[in-house]
Amino acid sequence: MGLTLHNIVSRTLLTTGFTIHWYEEFLHHGIEAMEELEMDTYAELKVVKLKISDGKVKLPKDYLDYVTLGTVKQNGRVRRYMENPNLAFSDSYDTKNIEDDYYPFSLDENHNDLGEFTGRLFGAGGFTLDKEFRVNRKEGYIRLGTEVGNENSEIYLEYVAEGDCPCSCSYVHPYLNKAIEKYIIWMNREHNRSETSYGKETSRREYYNELRKARARISGLTYEQIIESARAYTGLSTKF
Q1: Which tens digit of pLDDT belongs to each residue from 170-227?
Q2: Is 185 exposed, middle or buried (0-12, 13-18, 19+ CB in 10 A)?
Q3: Contact 125, 235 (CB under 8 A)
Q4: DSSP code of 177?
Q5: How many C-beta atoms lie closer than 10 Å to residue 236's C-beta?
Q6: pLDDT given for residue 66 in this prediction
Q7: What average pLDDT does the segment 79-97 reach?
Q8: 3-class DSSP state of 128
Q9: Which of 25, 55, 59, 79 could form a disulfide with 149 if both were Cys (CB 3.0 to 4.6 A apart)?
Q10: Which residue, among 18, 47, 15, 12, has the nearest Cα to 30 in the 3D structure?
């Protein structure tokens, strides 16, 4: 049976020997812990299919960060696209300050300004990354490469969404109970002027130990995943 944040705060009060008068402070630290854990340890993932318009897709309102972006193949697997920080947000560029004998041929870090290939594609594996995108968080859209926009009418997106504002009635996953309890104790000692540095450091280590255990339980790494990861980026170098 799952516990609410109220249950965890009450249990922490009993564990530490504090009275009910400390409930509000402990609840405040518990809410902080849940907000942090919902960002990267137990994030809320959502899946949407977005319509492509003019080579762009609009981000959902509750978007925080992407997990996977691509298209779904017939076998049910996602063909993931690669984020390219050099992809322009607009197809146009400023030509006012370009000299007459200079042409902006450079497309990426593997070509110089004359369009000449510079090599150094170590481990490329003989393929090209033509499916690219770049996220514009400020304006709320994803810019897609030309090939993506021409071949598809919609895009598959898995993303981290903003969670609901936690409160005393919020349900807590059992894997996170001890981590939240240790976080409350750590913050209580951290803001206590009479607490020694040793006590604060001990509480901090206890929290991070429980955090590591929670993360290992939620997303444990298997032997098969390690082997697959090691093989994924192993390939021959491209020669010209």
Answers
A1: 999 999 999 999 999 999 999 999 999 999 999 999 999 999 999 988 887 777 777 7
A2: buried
A3: yes
A4: H
A5: 10
A6: 87
A7: 72
A8: coil
A9: 55
A10: 12
Residue 163's nearest CA partner among 27, 29, 40 is 40
Residue type, 17: G
Domain ranges, ordered by start, for the chain: 3-42+173-218, 44-163
pTM, rounded to two decimals:
0.66
Residue with tokens 């991070």: 208
132 backbone dihedrals φ, ψ, rounded to 5° = -130, 160
pLDDT at 101 over 60: no
DSSP bridge pairs for 68: 158
How far from 105 is each of 35, 47, 112, 145, CA to CA, in Å? 46, 38, 8, 17
Beta strands in the chain (DSSP E): 3-4, 44-51, 56-58, 63-72, 78-80, 82-83, 132-136, 141-144, 154-161, 171-172
Q: Pick from 188, 160, 165: which is nearest to 180 by CA?
A: 188
Query: What is the DSSP annotation of 80-110?
Result: EPEE-TTS-SSS----TT--TT------STT
> Which tokens go with 132?
């690219």
The DSSP string of 206-228 is HHHHHHHHHHHHHSPPPHHHHHH
The answer to whether the CB of 54 falls within 8 A of the CB of 144 is no
Query: What pLDDT score does 75 carry?
Result: 83
Per-residue pLDDT tens for 126-145? 444 557 888 888 888 888 88
